[in-house]
Specification:
There is one protein chain. This protein has helices at residues 2-6, 34-37, 50-63, 84-91, 106-118, 163-167, 171-182, 184-198, 204-219, 229-249, 258-273, 280-299, 312-323, 327-337, 345-350, 352-359, 365-373, 379-397, 407-415; strands at residues 9-10, 16-17, 23-27, 43-49, 68-74, 99-104, 123-127, 139-144, 147-152, 158-162. Helix 7 (171-182) crosses helix 10 (229-249), helix 12 (280-299) packs antiparallel against helix 17 and helix 13 (312-323) crosses helix 14 (327-337). The chain has two domains: 2-169, Rossmann fold (3-Layer(aba) Sandwich), CATH 3.40.50; 175-200 and 253-415, Dehydroquinate synthase-like, alpha domain, CATH 1.20.1090. The chain has 19 helices and ten strands. The chain is an alpha/beta fold. The strands form three sheets. A six-stranded parallel β-sheet has the order 3-10-7-6-4-5. A two-stranded antiparallel ribbon has the order 1-2. The chain has a two-stranded antiparallel sheet with strand order 8-9.
Length: 418
Amino acid sequence: MINKLLKGFECECGKFHTCDIDYVYIEKNAISHLAEICEKYNSVLLVADENTFTAAGDKTVLALGGKNIEQVTFTGSKVLVPNEEAIDAVTKKLDGIDIIIGIGSGVIQDLCKYVSFYNNLPYIIVATAPSMDGYASDGAAMITSGMKVTYKAGLPRAIIADTEVLCNAPIEMIKAGYGDIIGKFSALNDWKLSKCINDEYFCDYIYNLTNEQIDKTLRLATGILERNEESIKTLMEALVIIGILMSFAGSSRPASGSEHHLSHFFEITGIVDNTEYFPHGIDVAYSTLITTQIREKLLNEKFPSKIYRGTREELEKNIKSIYKQVADECLALQDKIGNYTADRINVYLEKEVEIKQILSEVPSYDDIFDMLDLVGLDMKEFYALYGEERIKNAVLYAKDLKDRYTVLWLNYDLFGDK
């Protein structure tokens, strides 16, 4: 399935879908393929953190045989942040390097993707956890100038996912990958919603195949907590396929919407305020329940005849209180897009029936709650960590971190802070 997708094809949506990845190996002993893939490269830079190098570093070095190997291993108890400091740590080791090999998952992947792209070097990712869907996407989610920014970057030459390594990943990272898959219910719905309201590009093939990956993962969900190799392999395949579909779409639309914006809110405010936040995929899972509540609320309310808008003074005060040193960038982004000056009420009223039909297509809160319960994700932990006020602020202001239209904007436009 994956190799067939990589070949590309002309789609009925009008695009030629393509994804320039040469190799994807998701199997036992997958790391052994590095010898063949790296045959023509002499000097290799390995990028990892202490935990990910422990997971797959020795296997990677062994597979590379007699190569000249340089290494960047991030240490310390704090969560690695893909910021300017991390970029500089990798970039200063590039002299004479032929290829970058990242050993890790989300942050290591994004960091290597970013550095390789802006330095015109190939890279390979040796996955250590089935924790997120960015392995095969061309977006690098970085934190620069304190903001969460997804940069258009290159694709890996190869994705190496050794199922023995994946099965031994921390259980929270395995849950995170499952949570990222559950978040697609919300992301796909936001995509369809934006097509209805903004006439945004939409592809039925990508939409339907993403849904298939959700279904495949759900069928094997009970094996995930047991670290069943077939379940973990299926989860990883689904995450990689969805990454390929993001490349097909030319954006992360099929995989990232309001649920990711909420997750980014908790991450950015966690960094700004030096407070704890969940791993990305777990935040996405819990945030999917929040966006489901928003959709159910909108389904049960009659749309008002006038769009909601507070005063500019109040908006700036609230955003600066929440985002602090990155507030001005949030405001500048929304001013550039014009979301706060846009009046979509006529579209909302003309298409109220169609909009509500789209909103109704997401599984119910209770159904998604049960999906999360299958892998031991308890919504009580979400409320205990963040609290009611922070979650309410996320619903109101997570939309300001991104330029993407989602149900968060629909909810704000119609009902503001109610």
